[in-house]
């Protein structure tokens, strides 16, 4: 999906940024680092740390894969070891898809996101650590973490590329603090129609249908009127749409009858 508006991107906030630090351990390809940076900025995160990357984070391939998330790559820090990269962090989550022979708490991204938000509110710095593309984190890396973060996926095939893993985890963090309504109907500068406007339209529409002979069965008229009104009610019409529909009804009531359709004595087309 496309949705880039760089004018709305806030500059990196450095140490003041409340979100987690994303640490990539021994990333192999510049494209993967760029794609991870893109995934981070999708979720409003900018603090990227690289542990002994094989290729430069500022290569053309990295920037091409970042698709505009240049600020993340440019501000990324490079460290020789994971110990150095997380030295200033209070809490560390190590991502892994495999069971480990160690006693360590394992959480889902959703649970981790809630904990990350709580830790940030308390002034703690949290790191999310991701391993190399081919092997993932090794036990020595995970031993440095407080918690293992594991994404629930198909147990028979839970392999993710680096950017996918970063996006899944960071998106849970983003959602945990996002107040976007689950459903909304934007009116694009207009406003929803009032009940009075809807009722006026219904009266005009039903008068036109009456003239056209639509309600041929008198006993069915109330049911048909309710069905028509409910259909328009479900549409969530705007004030502009109501005015347009008034014009439609007006035009239809003026329209000549279809060829071969007789007129009533009052000059209207017969039903």
Q: Kindly, what is the distance between the CA atoms of the first and last residues, rounded to a whole number of angstroms? A: 50 Å
Strand residues, percent: 5-15%
**Quick one: overall form?**
elongated
Q: Give the beta-strand count.
A: 7
Q: Give the domain tally.
A: 2
- What's the CATH topology label of the largest domain? Alpha/beta knot
Low-confidence stretches: none
For the largest beta sheet, what order do the strands appear in spatially?
Answer: 3-2-1-6-4-7-5
How would a crystallographer describe the biggest sheet?
A: 7 strands, parallel
Helix content: 40-55%
* Helix-and-strand structural type: alpha/beta
Quote the average pLDDT.
Answer: 86
SSE blueprint and pairings:
Elements: E1 21-25, H1 30-42, E2 48-51, H2 60-66, H3 70-75, E3 77-79, H4 82-85, E4 91-95, E5 106-107, H5 109-121, E6 126-130, H6 139-142, E7 147-149, H7 162-176, H8 195-211, H9 221-234, H10 239-254
Parallel strand pairs: 1-2, 1-6, 2-3, 4-6, 4-7, 5-7
Helix pairs in contact: 1-2, 1-7, 5-7, 8-10
